[in-house]
Prior knowledge:
alpha/beta; DHBP synthase; Rossmann fold; eleven-stranded mixed β-sheet; 13 helices; 16 strands; about 35% helix; about 15% strand; globular; disordered N terminus; binds threonylcarbamoyladenylate; binds magnesium ion
Amino acid sequence: MLECEMDFFNRKKTKEYENMTEKLQTIIEDGSSDSAIKKAAQILRAGGLVAFPTETVYGLGGDALSPDAAAKIYAAKGRPSDNPLIVHIADTDALPILAGEVPEKARMLAEAFWPGPLTIILPKKDIVPDATTGGLPTVAIRMPSHPAALALIRESGLYIAAPSANASGRPSPTLASHVAEDLSGRIDMILDGGPVGIGIESTIVDLTGDTPTICRPGFITKEMLTSIIGNVEIDPALIHPSKDARPKAPGMRYTHYAPKGELTVVEASDPESASDPEEAKRVADTISRLALEKENEGFRVAILAAEENSMYYSRGHVITVGSVRSGVTVAARLYAALRECDEAGAEVIYSESFDGTDISDAIMNRLLKAAGQRVLHIS
Ligand code: TXA
Ligand code: MG
């Protein structure tokens, strides 16, 4: 082939490839636009998948009453199909349609926290397919508060099954671009609602046993739940995670949120003293020493630090995660920070602890999971 012919051939190939990848890219539309919501609702009614913003993290939605849609969700995420999906509703009238029994405590929690970041587990009715609940006789239900999520549920006229819209094992998405990174080409549409407000997934409370039990801590704390329905327990497997402890929520059993590098959480002697500047300096000194050692061994090191402490570090790729005075700001940044570790090619990661902040149960649950429970206590 002549050189000019070769050139043309290569260009043509590139063009074909571009067309092909264009088709493989999932369309991203503005979640605040009525026409985008209408289009997304149509896709869902036709059995397709749409990622949409919620106040916690982005969700990957499909028709909750369709086993085919559930199967597509599991396939797109690469998620084990025994890990049940949360059914999203826009009206409490849906409760008796989906749940076999709606105890008074469920109504009280719905009244207090819906729409909002709380998921309630109840016995399921037959209308909810086993494919959606991973074969469990119970169903997880939540009414999100994000306007785009509510608009989509209402416009579609469906109940929407939606796990977090990340590829299985990756941190949950807090931006539409995170969804695109993980799922572009594998789903039909992404509704962009900008950065989510809370940044970690909803609190899950199981009301099917004698005592209401938190299966996943979140923005709605144990104290907030207790103030409405009295005694609430935390799933013991979450407090003392070990190989033998079996968390009630199947999803809490998998390694999750893990960045590619090996993450260790470094804690002060009194874990709740994270906001004490002297303790923070001692933790930072330890992390700096470890980071230097690892860098000298040739590893790429990232450090997750609170804004107040970032000035203490001169080694490693420092990623700030919010303020020790406000757990809410840490939650909002945590997953993006874990993704940034991967982007920076970090092989070793040290994180400060965020125990002792508000919603620290939820933050430390996610951070310790990402760390595979690796904690270094400094004496
Ligand atoms: O904030 C949230 O809850 C987000 C947004 C999109 O709404 N969704 C979310 O879904 O985090 P996902 O699938 O990533 O996590 C759902 C968790 C999993 O740990 C799953 O095992 C648990 O809920 N779950 C769902 N149904 C359950 C059930 N019937 N019994 C026990 N656990 C259940
Ligand atoms: Mg998830």
